[in-house]
Amino acid sequence: MVLAIDQGSSGTTCLVVDGELRPRGRGFRAVRQYYPRPGWVEHDPEDIWQSVVAATEQALVDASVRAGDVQAIGITNQRETTLLWDRRSGEPVQRAIVWQDRRTAERCRELPKDLIRARTGLVPIRTSRQRSSSGCFATAARTGSRSAPSTPGSSGS
Prior knowledge:
Elements: E1 2-7, E2 11-17, E3 23-30, E4 33-34, E5 42-43, H1 45-63, E6 72-76, E7 96-97, H2 105-110, H3 113-120, H4 128-132, E8 149-150
Parallel strand pairs: 1-6
Antiparallel strand pairs: 1-2, 2-3, 4-8, 5-7
């Protein structure tokens, strides 16, 4: 059995597949999104972790297999989402800054495009959607404040 974990912006999906790659079980848990200011998008790191645990448990139950039956785990995640951890405690410093966040868009536009390509492999492109939302294609250190959560599809999204 293989456990595939897809931890994305709206939630975590887990699949248990057999040796023939046939789906045997599925689990999903939403991740709350926080919008402390216009253009800012954050996730609580504990919510992310708990969504992985819950979706994994649901997929295993749905597949009628035990965790010990899993021979391999594949993981994909949000990649550009940024999270700072305290080196001593191992605890997150604040909520994760989600890849859709726009707080550093102006600074990103100031960066040389060749530097971004050389350091990150990202190709700077601007679509009409990005222009209208002050889009950005690089990650930078950021800070933020806390606000009330919302879930995908709620009035905060």
